[in-house]
Amino acid sequence: MTDRPLRILIATDTFAPDVNGAAKFTTRLAARLTQRGHEVHVVASALGRGRHGTRIEEHEGERFSVHRLRSMLYPGHEWLRFAHPWRMFQNAASLLDALKPDVVHFQSHIILGRAFSLEAKKRGIRVIGTNHLMFENLMDHSNIPQFLQGKTVEWAWQDAATVLGRCDVVTTPTRRSADYLELKTGLEGVHAISCGLPGDEYSPNPERQRGRIVFVGRVTSEKRLDTLVRAVAQLPSDLEWHLDIVGGGDQIDELAALARELHVADRVTLTGFVSDQELRERLRGAEVFAMPSTAELQSIATMEAMATGLPVVAADAMALPHLVTDGVNGWLFRPDDAEDLAEKLERVLRLDDEEYAKLQQHSLQMVAPHDIEATITAFERLYRGEDIADPDTHVEIDD
């Protein structure tokens, strides 16, 4: 295979400055591919009316072309925008004919992935599809009546199977999420490729930050943050603790009200959106990271916490057991069980310094194989049509 630079088109329904795992991954992917000398073109939604067009944008310290398409705000959502569906096939055809990419890599099949996969296949262009979605997650934001949600989810997975079935290769971030995708769609051979993490951007705090519990992520219903607030309210009175919920979303007011109701408002801070620098400082200022979500396909936020040397207490659901091993780098708790979560948080907070340091070191060891350079190399090889073995991210901890 030639190692010549590739012309890569990345089609995505969410991209910087959106704040979510898929947008963060896609932004890093585009930047790191550019850094390696490839010509990268990102196709994404315009950030507002009149802001469409092609520009050179800078992200993660790299400059590359971003083609912003006319878009609409998703009903009832504060920031999520979608490219106009009625223009998507026309837009895909014209951009593919103008750019003639070597490969198309889409990050969501709902709008742009649907159009670019179809138009790329017509032109004989290689297509890679990555799935970051669990449709069960989306129902809270869908305005679809409860009695129709089950059928809607079933239809959505069938639709995903149709679009992803056009791909030469399908990927998703973990083996568990790959197995789930295969189960829901009937696809075979889905690759598990970590979203990856630039580990050199995170550093442990040499001083233990006693009593500080932190969550990082979108403050939305699927993250199950009410379980976390109810859990900290059950911590024994002799423990000095404070919970930082770092991130923005539509549940901030509701969680603040819950904290008041449970008489812990003075111990719970809801930061709203913060800069990447402040996010890292909040992690460095914590003693333990909590992830109550039950529907993580990987959880970049949990990996960021591990790269900061934090023990993790996470729900025993979806992909989180790939990152957390009981008694090794933290503990898993029964999903939606605030009492069990409180008990596992208390375990960490009461560890002596030697035991705590072991969990810290194990978090660092277990996240190390998720280095983003291995992720970029895997995608480069897929773009060139090579067969690959999924990168091994499992670490055996030997005490």
UniProtKB/TrEMBL annotation:
<keyword id="KW-0328">Glycosyltransferase</keyword>
<dbReference type="InterPro" id="IPR050194">
    <property type="entry name" value="Glycosyltransferase_grp1"/>
</dbReference>
<protein>
    <recommendedName>
        <fullName>D-inositol 3-phosphate glycosyltransferase</fullName>
    </recommendedName>
</protein>
<keyword id="KW-0808">Transferase</keyword>
<dbReference type="InterPro" id="IPR001296">
    <property type="entry name" value="Glyco_trans_1"/>
</dbReference>
<dbReference type="InterPro" id="IPR028098">
    <property type="entry name" value="Glyco_trans_4-like_N"/>
</dbReference>
<dbReference type="GO" id="GO:0016757">
    <property type="term" value="F:glycosyltransferase activity"/>
</dbReference>
<feature type="domain" description="Glycosyl transferase family 1">
    <location>
        <begin position="210"/>
        <end position="361"/>
    </location>
</feature>
<dbReference type="Pfam" id="PF13439">
    <property type="entry name" value="Glyco_transf_4"/>
</dbReference>
<dbReference type="Pfam" id="PF00534">
    <property type="entry name" value="Glycos_transf_1"/>
</dbReference>
<feature type="domain" description="Glycosyltransferase subfamily 4-like N-terminal">
    <location>
        <begin position="19"/>
        <end position="197"/>
    </location>
</feature>
<dbReference type="GO" id="GO:1901137">
    <property type="term" value="P:carbohydrate derivative biosynthetic process"/>
</dbReference>
